[in-house]
Specification:
Length: about 120
C-alpha cells in the first residue's frame, strides 16, 4: 500500500491546483493508498479554506485507508527530524511504521532530507 503525503491529497481535493491531473494520473498506477489522520486533518483544513464542499472532501478522504498516528511515530519524528517541518516527518514515521511503500509526495526537499528511510515517488 502506498502512503500519500498531504500535498498529494490537497491536489486531489482542490481540483484547480496546478498538479491535479498529474497526481490523478500517477495514482492510477496504485491499487491501495493510505494516509495518516494528520493528513486527513490537513485536507479538511485546506479544502475548506479553498471553498471545496465538505461532500467532496469526505469522498476523497473516505476512499483512502486512514492510519492512526501513534506515540512511537511522534518519538521517531522527534529523533529523526531534519529541518523544521514536523508535519512531514510525522507523516513519514506513520508510513514507515505501517509498511507503506512508496511515500508519494510533491515535496522534493522532503525526499532529499529523508532519502534512505523509504522509497519515494514524485512528479
Amino acid at each position: 500500500m502506498v502512503f500519500l503525503d498531504a500535498n498529494i491529497l490537497i491536489e486531489l481535493v482542490v481540483h484547480r491546483r496546478a498538479k491535479y491531473i498529474q497526481v490523478s494520473n500517477l495514482l492510477k498506477n496504485y491499487q491501495e493508498a493510505a494516509m495518516s489522520t494528520l493528513t486527513a486533518h490537513l485536507c479538511w483544513h485546506f479544502g475548506r479554506q479553498a471553498g471545496v464542499s465538505d461532500d467532496l472532501i469526505a469522498t476523497v478522504i473516505d476512499s483512502i485507508t486512514l492510519l492512526s498516528i501513534e506515540p512511537d511515530d511522534y518519538y521517531w519524528a522527534r529523533r529523526n527530524e531534519r529541518g523544521k517541518d514536523f508535519e512531514d516527518v510525522i507523516q513519514l514515521a506513520c508510513s514507515i511504521r505501517s509498511n507503506c511503500v512508496p511515500f508519494i509526495t510533491l515535496d522534493k526537499n522532503l525526499i532529499k532530507r529523508y532519502a534512505g528511510y523509504t522509497e519515494f515517488v514524485t512528479i
